[in-house]
Specification:
This protein has about 850 residues and is mostly beta strands. About 0% of the residues lie in helices and about 40% in strands.
Amino acid sequence: MNALLSLQRFVSRGLHAAAMPLICLALAACGGSANAPPPPETGPQPIPPTITQQPANLSVTAGQGASFTVAATGTAPLSYQWQRGSVDIPGATGTTYTLAATVVGDSGATFRAVVTNLAGSATSNAATLTVATAAPVLTITQQPASTSVVAGTQAAFSVAATCSSGTLGVQWQRSSGSGAGLTWADIATATNTSYSLGAVSGDNGVQFRANLNCSGQSAASSNAATLTVTAPGAVTLSLLNIVGLRDQVELSQLSGISQDAGGSFSFVAGNRILRLSANLLSVDPVAGGRTGGSADGVGAAAAFNQPSGLTQDTNGVIYVTEPSNRTIRRIATDGTVTTIAGAVGVDGNTDGSGSAARFSNPRGVAIGPDGDLYVADLGNHRIRRVTPAGVVTTYAGSTAGFADGPTALAAQFNGPFDVAVAANGDVLVADSTNSRIRRILRNGNVAGAVQTLAGNGTVTPHVDGTGAAATIPTPIALFVRGNTLTVRDSSGLLRQIDLTSAVVTTLTGSRTFGSGEADGPANVARVNSSGGLTGAPNGGFMLGDFNLLRSVSAAGEVRTIASNRAVGVTSTGTGVLAQMPMTPSGYAGVTVDAAGNVIVADPTARTLRRISPAGAVTLVSGLVQSIHAPLDGVGSVAQLAAPRSVISGSAGALWFIDRYAVRKVDSASAATVLAGSPNDFGALDGDAATARFNSLLGIARNSVGDVFVTANQAIRRIDTAGNVTTYAGLIGTAGTVDGPLAGARFTTPGDLAFGPDGSLYVVDGGRIRRITPDGSSISTVAGIFDVSRLAVDAAGTVYYSTSSGLSMLPAGGAAELLIPQANAVVLGNVNPRVAGIDGIAVLGPKQLVILSGAQVLQVTLP
């Protein structure tokens, strides 16, 4: 009976009638019987696959094979299918999969196996294949040779090598110590096949070698070459070895800027279009000249008249707006300039093609995803659309005013200054006079509704918020990246607006100090109220900032790249601040630290810069010719007023005179005020904050860390706690009195320097005066007059400058004129001449570095 019920169920489920005889046979009779045997028992259930051996990650060299293996258990038969990523590999159906010959493109690929049987499937872990290029063969074809030079001259070393593949890398090293204590240290910036240095006596016996590699592989060191330095036969005057400097680019009236596909930045500067290289180290001309005009042509043969907006397409073609000429210009990749729309000098509001179209003060421009240009036509209060062929139509706007609405041509703008186009085609507008950010929605291929994204028309206070709750005073530049619009406003702030939520935040700029020129993190940086804005790598930005090129990090930290305030700006220069020529003049300062670095305090440039023994120049502190001095901070964040005398200490620290204050720069290049106030002069001892100085000139530091300065007709001491006391003389009382310090008097004390025995030498009224090591009394060095600067070496020799030139006074010896003074510097060892000395420091035994004729010079004695 049960069998029949089962049969009925199978039939009711659609079992074919042809199967009935088989079923009947299986039951022995269709009718069944109480004595019929029971049905056979069901067999064992199949077991699904289980991975017992996972494929292993592999690392091979390109060209080698790679095999992956998997093992699994489960009811047979098992089938295998290998996958690359998640895609089946045709024919790869065994327990092992092999790539016969790998290529670099296989690196990072993952491989896994899917094992299947009747009961199910299992997927192995993914194994990663790493493919390295075959190690290149490095062959050194020329070893550096030992050389012998005279101190004060150049020593050069060369190496040559070849790579079977890849790029040759070079890093020169310098030895220190000898024998078992010999060590090697990299020489900063010495990465060419040749390396040269201005040899000094202390270089004698030093070894140099080059570490070589082929694209980071197959590294090897060259032989070591020994430098022998001999003393010259006569006093030698030479330029201190300095590399990598160049004349500065001339910048003015920077506005529109756009990042090129290759990472460089094209920008408007006055009547020219210039380009900053992707490595931020050079600026080269693209088109136009210094004289305004309107002329199509190639490169400098073309003329612009105060262009404003700039953008470019993915092919590198640049488009420029000219408010004065009322035109839109195009610059091809070969520098050819053509006018694509507008009539030169003709104001109007006419749609049309090419010269038939009319503009009135066209400003910002951006390219949309459709390839068309969108122009902020400020004088017409409209947004215009321009095809690459020069066909002009009005995209949005009507008369001056403020009105949103569903129809773009009925909306009102007031002085739109810039535009940006989002990826979806929405046009974002810096509605300047309305102090709002507006959005023109895209509707197919035309403009849709106009909305106010953020701002409420008020200028102050500068508050963040959502939409109309935020204030955006006179927005002047826009850049859109993804869902974020970045805005420059006229108060020197960079604001960011989320395009979905309309939330406005501030990226950088100081609300406390307002617009200006100060580098630093977001809360202290100062940005000018005019200029352009574009994107930069790592989420950052680049600004054309009045007369500066400046970068802004994604976190809002501002750094100046190039400046029109730089010393040595020329009409043909291409350099940036990092390459600024060394031109110290006036009462400047120079010192040499324990590592042999020369540090120059330049009151004209308002910076401290470091020159390594290899000649590489780096900024220590200060923003070139800063206008908001003084400020504390790291590197260019600090601003210096008039840095003068400078001294070095342990661990790379520096102390220097800056107007009415004594300032310190630590090993991390952080500048702080040690004592006094750069902005407030006076004559007061006390703690660091309350002490005041005037007529600060000289600075020195003793072995226990006390700093001594000349100020207020006295010698003042600043102890390690920052307390200021009068060490010698009487504040505000002039005189020339030797004897015990309490009764000593000074007239115009200047340069200071400690001798090896602890004596303190002071230039005072053209004389050299000496304070004994125990500080008990002061005396005047007889027979020496007209002194301005001095330094003392480890042997106790005093080097000093007068109107006659550079002289020396050996310990226990007689004064000797080393190099006479003339109207101009004369280099060499035959009748060398100096031209007034602005600073002296000891470079090494019988070697000095001096500042003369706005140059950094090296003096080598026989």
